[in-house]
Design a protein that fits this description.
The complex is a heterodimer of chains A (282) and B (80).
Chain A: H1 5-25, E1 45-47, E2 59-61, H2 62-84, H3 92-111, H4 118-137, E3 142-149, E4 152-161, H5 169-191, H6 193-198, H7 208-241, H8 249-280
Antiparallel strand pairs in A: 1-2, 3-4
Chain B: H1 3-23, H2 25-44, H3 49-63, H4 65-79
Helix pairs in contact in B: 1-4, 2-3
The chains are: A mainly alpha (282), B mainly alpha (80).
Chain lengths: 282, 80
C-alpha cells in the first residue's frame, strides 16, 4: 500500500491525536472497583438560593441549559456566516447546507399531502433535526464532563464526552410535547375546530378513551426513544470502556453510539414529528 | 453485608438480566424482519438499494426503541 504525502500527514495527525487523548485520560481513568462510586446517571442540579420555597421551579439543570444555549448560538452564527454571502456558485459550506436542506425538504414534500403546509412543517422539523443532530454529535466527542459525587460537581477532562442536552429527559419531553401541540394547531387550522374535535370520537364515540390514551402515548414514546438511545448509549460506553481501561475502544464506541446512532435518532425524531403533524392535517 | 442486603443485591442482578434478556426478544424479531425484507427488496430491485438502506436504518431505529426501554429499566434497577 502506497500513501501520498497528504494521506501520510492525515494518518499521522490522527495517530498523534489518539496518543494525546490516551495520555490525557490515563492518569484519570478509574479502576473497575470504583464503578459504584462514580456519579453515574446523576445530574448537576443547581437550586436558586432565593427561590427555595418554590420547590420544583427553583431547580435548574445547568449543563442542559448551558450546552443547549451554546448549540443554539453556534447554529445561529453558522447560519449567519453561510447566509451572508449566498452565491450562485456555492462554496464548500454553502453546498453542504444546500444538500442537507434539500434532502430534508424532499422528505417533507414526499410525506405531506397538502402543499400549502409543506414549508412550515419543513421549518419545524429541520430546526428540531439540526439542534438534535449537533447535540448528539457532541455526545460522541471527548471533552469536559461533569459528574456529581456526594452532592458536589466534579469536573473531569477527556475521560468522557461533552454533556449533551438530549441525554436529559427534560429536553426531549419538551420537544415531544411541543410537536404534539403544534400538530393540534395544524389540525385545527387545516380542518376547522369542529371537524378536528370530532376526529377524537371516531369511529364511534365509545372509542374516545382509547383515542385519548393513544394521543398521550405519542409524546411519551417520542421522547423516551431519543432519551434512551443517547443516555443508554453513554452508560453502555462507560461500562464497556472499563474492560480495556480507556484504551482506544471508547473512540470507536463513541463514534458508533454518539455519531452514527445519534444522527439516525435525530433523523427519526424529525421524521416522527413530520408524521405526527401530517397525520393531523389529513 | 447483611443477608437482607445480599438478597436485594442478588434480586437486582437477576431482575436486570431478565429485563434485558426478555426485552431484547421483541426488537430482535422486528429488526430481523426489517433487514430480511429489505434484502428481498434489494435483490428484486438493486437500483433502489441506496434509498432502501436509509429507510431500513430508519425503521430499525424505530423498532429498536422497545429494547431501549428495557435497557433503561435495567440501568434503573442496577444503579438507582
Amino acid at each position: 500500500m502506497t500513501l501520498s504525502k497528504k494521506e501520510k500527514g492525515f494518518v499521522g495527525t490522527i495517530l498523534v491525536l489518539i496518543l494525546i487523548f490516551w495520555l490525557l485520560s490515563l492518569p484519570r481513568s478509574p479502576g473497575m472497583d470504583q464503578l459504584g462510586q462514580i456519579g453515574i446517571g446523576t445530574k448537576w442540579i443547581y437550586t436558586i438560593p432565593v427561590m427555595e420555597d418554590f420547590g420544583f421551579w427553583s431547580r435548574i439543570n445547568l449543563l442542559t441549559v448551558g450546552v443547549g444555549a451554546v448549540i443554539v448560538l453556534g447554529l445561529i452564527l453558522f447560519a449567519r456566516s453561510v447566509g451572508k454571502k449566498f452565491s450562485l456558485i456555492p462554496d464548500r459550506r454553502q453546498s453542504f447546507v444546500e444538500l442537507l436542506l434539500e434532502y430534508l425538504y424532499n422528505t417533507v414534500d414526499d410525506t405531506v399531502s397538502r402543499k400549502e403546509f409543506v414549508k412550515p412543517i419543513f421549518v419545524i422539523s429541520t430546526t428540531l433535526f439540526l439542534f438534535i443532530a449537533v447535540a448528539n454529535i457532541i455526545s460522541g466527542i471527548p471533552g469536559i464532563s461533569v459528574s456529581v459525587i456526594d452532592g458536589r460537581p466534579v469536573f473531569s477532562f477527556f475521560t468522557d464526552t461533552w454533556a449533551t442536552p438530549t441525554a436529559d429527559l427534560n429536553t426531549n419531553a419538551t420537544y415531544a410535547v411541543m410537536v404534539l401541540l403544534i400538530s393540534y394547531v395544524f389540525g385545527i387550522k387545516a380542518k376547522g375546530f369542529k371537524k378536528w374535535a370530532k376526529s377524537f370520537f371516531e369511529p364511534i364515540p365509545l372509542m374516545f378513551p382509547m383515542n385519548l390514551v393513544g394521543e398521550i402515548s405519542k409524546p411519551i414514546s417520542h421522547s423516551l426513544r431519543l432519551f434512551g438511545n443517547i443516555y443508554g448509549g453513554g452508560i453502555l460506553v462507560f461500562i464497556l470502556s472499563y474492560m480495556v481501561k480507556y484504551m482506544l475502544l471508547p473512540i470507536g464506541l463513541w463514534g458508533f453510539f454518539g455519531m452514527f446512532i445519534g444522527l439516525i435518532q435525530a433523523l427519526v425524531f424529525s421524521m416522527l414529528a413530520i408524521a405526527y403533524i401530517s397525520s393531523q392535517i389529513e | 453485608m447483611e443477608i437482607t442486603d445480599a438478597i436485594v443485591q442478588a434480586a437486582k442482578f437477576i431482575g436486570a438480566g431478565l429485563c434485558m434478556g426478555i426485552g431484547a426478544i421483541g426488537p430482535a424479531i422486528g429488526q430481523g424482519n426489517v433487514g430480511g425484507h429489505a434484502m428481498d427488496a434489494m435483490a428484486r430491485q438493486p437500483e433502489m438499494a441506496g434509498t432502501l438502506v436509509t429507510r431500513m436504518l430508519l425503521s430499525m431505529a424505530v423498532a429498536e426503541s422497545t429494547g431501549l426501554y428495557s435497557l433503561l429499566i435495567a440501568f434503573i434497577i442496577l444503579f438507582v
